[in-house]
Amino acid sequence: MRLGVLVSGRGSNLEAILRAIATGRLACDAALVVSNRPAVAALEIARTHGAPTLLLDHHQYPRREQFDTALVGALRAAGVELVALAGFDRLVTSVLLDAFPERIYNVHPALLPAFKGLHAQRQALDYGARVTGATVHLVDEHMDHGPIVLQGAVAIAHDDTEETLTARILAVEHAIFPAALQLCAEGRVRVVGRRVVVGGVLPPLPPPMLWLP
Hints:
By secondary structure, the chain is α/β, with parallel strands linked by helices. It has a domain at 2-108 and 137-153 and 176-189: Formyl transferase, N-terminal domain (Rossmann fold), CATH 3.40.50.170. Helices cover 33% and strands 23% of the residues. The chain contains 6 helices and 9 strands, in the order E-H-E-H-E-H-E-H-E-H-E-E-H-E-E. It has helices at residues 12-22, 41-48, 64-77, 94-99, 120-127, 162-185; strands at 2-7, 29-35, 53-55, 82-85, 104-108, 131-138, 148-155, 189-192, 195-198. The strands form 2 sheets. Strands 3-2-1-4-5-6-7 form a 7-stranded mixed β-sheet, with helices on both faces. A two-stranded antiparallel sheet has the order 8-9. The model has no long low-confidence stretch (mean pLDDT 94).
């Protein structure tokens, strides 16, 4: 399956995806990596792994729909079948959603539907949660809202800071994002209403991570 990855920043989840492809854990070709921001680390990571890259500056488009139209054109020209939002900081519109129905995946650093939006790790700490984690979900027209594909749980320690918690959640993101994309590549993801049904057996996660399919 030909994969397009949308990025905006440092690219750690992009690197996890590209490493999974390189080691055979993700049966996809990195068809195109698109950044909406210039000079981000993610673009250099893509080039290091030999993935085609494209800068599509969103500031050049007055409306979100215009940007997404250009984005869809670039993804289709590259033959993309599956899209991953790996630290992409733009809300997408129906233009992109309609072009790739149930084929756009995002990862969020919380156990959705809890702690949506920015600074999810800080939200979990401020709320006094004992458990948080990461979620891979299908993207819909609302922020951090689409059907959940996979989740990985992380216990919150009494002395956790936002930085230490972020680092542990990020490790889970790097594990579950490629795994969720692989489930899609294998045709094991089925959407029934608001619920995702995942077929087959999930691969093991290293402790203390925990699947929540």
